[in-house]
Design goal:
CATH superfamily of the largest domain: Multidrug efflux transporter AcrB transmembrane domain
Helix content: 55-70%
Structural class: alpha+beta
Strand order of the largest sheet: 2-3-1-4
Strand content: 5-15%
CATH class of the largest domain: Mainly Alpha
Length: about 300
């Protein structure tokens, strides 16, 4: 079998105290971000708050700061404006505002109409061409928030049950904690960077959970096979370490090849997929780390405090 690195004998379990401190910081950061989201103090996309998204292009180049100022001075102070790189179309922009027009009488201006009116007045010599528009009402946004919450909860419960059936309960808890750790870490980093949490980010978080689980299953499967050869209590930690070292080359190859694909998406995928691809890049790195430094060491700590495998 091809190995990107030779045989190793790294004491991963011996570094578990350091990794637990680092992971504790990541989890605390993620929980803080989660609380901020619940309190409405985090950047939330229009998918969850309700709002209007308008995409289009100008005839001539325009300074994005001028466009942002025009929106702020004409009733849209929270407008998010993003330049787009679209093949065959120049000077493209995506305008997002957390304002919707619901329950209007016939003939009233919609939010899109108001934005187009502002652009027409402020840039009368530079016509703006509407390409697409998308509006989500507050009620729909609240429904999507609730569905997102249950999607994450059910995913974590499914992981616990799957690993419990395939291995045992302790491995299931460890895999669930590792997945929870990865999701919270990405959420915390996005909160620090001020990136909006929307449906694409949620998709990335759920994908990260699946990737983290796959990595942990590979390590756990090797641990299970190696444990069959040992019966003494003192061999448990050595067996865990040996198992991690044996699959280390496979883990690195998988992570690197996946990063190449996701990195390409991040660089060339355009602004629309930027948050999704960034979540996947960070998630793959954190997921690889957690399968080695979180999931397996957690099982070791649990076994040390409550021995079960080697009882007579």
């Amino acid at each position: 079998m091809f190995r990107i690195i030779g045989k190793t004998n790294i004491d991963f379990i011996g570094m578990r105290k350091f990794s637990f401190v680092l992971s504790g910081f990541f989890i605390l950061l993620g929980l803080t971000a989660f609380v901020m989201i619940l309190l409405g103090k985090a950047e939330m996309g229009i998918d969850f708050t309700g709002g209007t998204m308008l995409q289009g292009n100008f005839d001539q180049p325009i300074n994005i700061s001028e466009l942002r100022a025009a929106m702020m001075d004409n009733g849209f102070p929270e407008a998010k404006i993003q330049g787009l790189t679209t093949e065959g179309v120049e000077n493209s922009y995506l305008i997002r505002v957390k304002t919707v027009s619901e329950g209007m009488a016939i003939g009233d201006e919609t939010t899109v109409d108001k934005i187009l009116k502002v652009l027409d007045q402020k840039f009368s010599d530079n016509t703006f061409h509407r390409d697409s528009e998308h509006t989500i009402g507050p009620a729909v946004g609240e429904t999507l928030r609730n569905q997102a919450k249950w999607a994450v909860i059910l995913a974590l419960c499914g992981i616990l049950i799957y690993i419990w059936i395939r291995f045992d309960f302790r491995f299931g808890v460890a895999a669930t904690i590792a997945t929870f750790h990865d999701v919270l870490t990405v959420l915390g980093i996005f909160w620090v960077l001020g990136i909006e949490f929307d449906l694409l980010v949620l998709t990335g978080l759920l994908t990260i959970g699946g990737y983290s689980l796959t990595d942990s299953v590979v390590v756990f499967d090797r641990i299970r096979e190696n444990l069959k050869m040992f019966r003494k209590k003192g061999d448990f930690v050595a067996t865990i370490n040996a198992s991690i070292n044996e699959v280390l080359s496979r883990t690195i190859i998988t992570s690197v090849t996946t990063l190449v694909v996701v990195g390409t998406l991040f660089i060339f995928g355009g602004q629309v997929l930027h948050s999704l691809s960034l979540a996947l890049v960070i998630g793959i790195l954190i997921g690889t780390y957690s399968s080695v430094f979180v999931a397996s060491p957690f099982v070791v700590e649990w076994e040390a405090r409550s021995p079960r495998r080697f009882k007579k």
